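Model: You mentioned two targets. I'll fold them one after the other.
Researcher: Yes, keep them separate.
Model: Target one:
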Amino acid sequence: MVLEEVRRDSGSALSLLLLRDEERNGRITLFSSGLSEAQHHYYIQHHRQDIWFNHYLEKGCKGVVKANTLSNKAGLLAGFGAHFAIGGVCRVSGYGLASVSSYRDQQQTDFGDKEIDVWDGLYFGLASWSRHYWNLVGLELQNHQLQQLIKHQNKAVAIVDEKGGVQYSNAEFNRIADDNHELRMQHGVLSVNNKDQQRQFRELLAGFTYSTPGSPRYLSVTRGGGLRPLLLQASLMSGLRNAERYIELVIRDPDHAFSPDIAAMGNLYPLTSGERELLLLLSKGYSSSDIAELRGVKVETVRSTLKSVFKKTDCHSQSELLLLLQSIS
């Protein structure tokens, strides 16, 4: 409707507004007034051949310019009767671009300076708007990617802010948070019921405020009923738009069995069949002496094999090795 009014007010035969998302495989949205449906689809398919997307950008133009300053034809739509044209492109590097253009046929006069001034105002308004638009489009894409990332992980994981506010979480994370009364989820904020451990949890999250992505930080949450502590693992996420600071929070429950993917571990690291068997037994809770007895070897042999696994995986303890295995599984 707005484009229709712009076309009429400017005395144009055709007016176009094109949006091209450069983050999502160049997805095109075209608003047009004066084009038939077939012409509309034709322009979408061939828009890169238009003067606005080659000559204009190559010459580093700014604002609205007349087509005859770029080419001896009125661009791609000359074949549809366009004889005079003005237009401009607003590009937000890495995110997307927007173009605005208007056309007159040969029975009309060319665009004058005053009309170009009016279109210039429209162009610079579009430039300001497009920065906000592409930022919102990018945030929408980022949020979708984060949701999918969390949803399909084989571990209890959530994305939280520096105050424990849960932005996204998967079913396994929600299950552990619900099943363990030591944790509390209220109004979308995760906390620990024990006051001292809640203080430690706040400090752990607040520690990411001015830090850069690096090694994970850990907090052990004690449980009653003879259950081993829950392990909270927090890592600062990197590469987020608008410098957003989100934290990936993983809950590891040592009493909740997981299915170790020994084959995946063996593909990532050059493990022998004996080392893979050792990993499988460790994941089932067997100690070095238990494994030695099961395999009919000395404890020293098991420890030597374990040292070899440490060296290949760059781990320094059994707990670190099991965390690595669990993250892969």
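Model: Target two:
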Amino acid sequence: MHLLFSCPFAQACWIYLGVLWDLSLHFDIMILRVRESFGSIIFREVIIMAMWSIWTHRNSIIFDGGSLSFMLWRRSFIEGMNSVILRVKPIMKDKINLWLSSLL
């Protein structure tokens, strides 16, 4: 839980995405609350890609001698979301593109 939700770097990533986790809640309830507050059908894609990007960024630091960098994480996240766009239905593509444009 710490790596993906409560470490300062992960918290900065989630804040950037507009996701605020209530770590005092049971995991299932925490996910449901964030989904409700996120308010978009792209919630699952965003959360999974954000977690994957945090995980792979951490691995690059540990195994490849990389450095902690919000900009590298952000680039990885956006590239991942652009890959997701290639496989989703058109309505989802539009929603993801609109949401991504609001981040820039």
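Researcher: Noted. Anything on target two?
Model: The mean pLDDT is 96.
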